[in-house]
Structure formats: structure tokens, C-alpha cells
Amino acid sequence: MYATKQREILGDFLKKNSDKLLTVAMIYQGVRDSGISKSAVYRNIAALEKEKLVQRCSVEGKNEAYFRYLGEEACHNHFHITCTKCGKTVHLQENVSGKIAELINDTSDFMTDIGETTIYGTCDKCR
Q1: Cα dihedral sign, 62-35-69-86
Q2: SS3 of residue 126 by DSSP
Q3: Residue 78 has what DSSP assignment?
Q4: DSSP H or E run through 13
């Protein structure tokens, strides 16, 4: 990852919030006191998305794009579970993800992409 001061500040914020889905507006609110402009957030998020360090997600009933921080470490071998109310995201264990993917692959005409798949539901705090 190409490092600038802005990218470092943004990366730190995203790491601290890696269990959440965030819009650009939410990210900007979190880093604006550091002097980063909203346009710089947009540019950096686009670059991080190209580098596969963040993933663009959609949330049912919302028009905005949400982003999930993936980080430098492998985040591609498991499903993600995201709360539709608060945006909390959990990384499902690889062995569980594998079993779910195998079941889907065996019972449908689809081959799942584990690292790109999010299962939506409601977390225990929002129920």
C-alpha cells in the first residue's frame, strides 16, 4: 500500500472500525479533525478498493455505498455476517464458511465466492 500521511490516518481509522460497514460520510466524520478533506477520503477509498484493502458493500434499503475494511491480511477465505441495523460485521470461521459454501455449491447451480459474500441478519444487540 502506497503510504501518505492521509492514507495512514485513514488506514488507522478503518482498522479501528474494521467490525463495521462505513459510508464515506461516516469515514469523513471520523477523520476530518485530522485535516483530511472529503474529496481526499473519496480518492483514498477508491484507491484502497482497487488494492482490495476495502470492499464496497450494499445495505438493503440504503442508497449509499458502504465499505468494509479488509486489511492487508487475508480476508478472502470466509463469509462475512453483517447486521442490517447497526452494520456490525463478523468474520465467519473458515471451516464454517467452507461447509456453507459446499452446501450451496452442491445444492444449486452456483459456485460461491467466499471472500465476496456477505450474509445479512441482525446481531444480538439489535434483536
Answers
A1: negative
A2: coil
A3: S
A4: helix 5-16
Nearest to 55 by CA among 4, 97, 114, 3: 114
- Residues 56 and 117 grouped into a single domain: no
Q: Which domain holds residue 123?
A: 74-127
Q: What are 121's strand-pairing partners?
A: 83
| Amino acid (one-letter) located at 67 | F
Residues 70-115 have pLDDT tens digits of 876 556 678 888 888 887 888 888 888 889 999 999 999 888 888 7
Count CB-CB contacts under 10 A for residue 88.
17
Prediction pTM value? 0.68
Domain count, the chain: 2
Residue 73 φ then ψ, to 5°: -75, 160
**The C-alpha cell that represents 63 in the structure block:** 442508497
Looking at residue 76, its pLDDT comes to 67
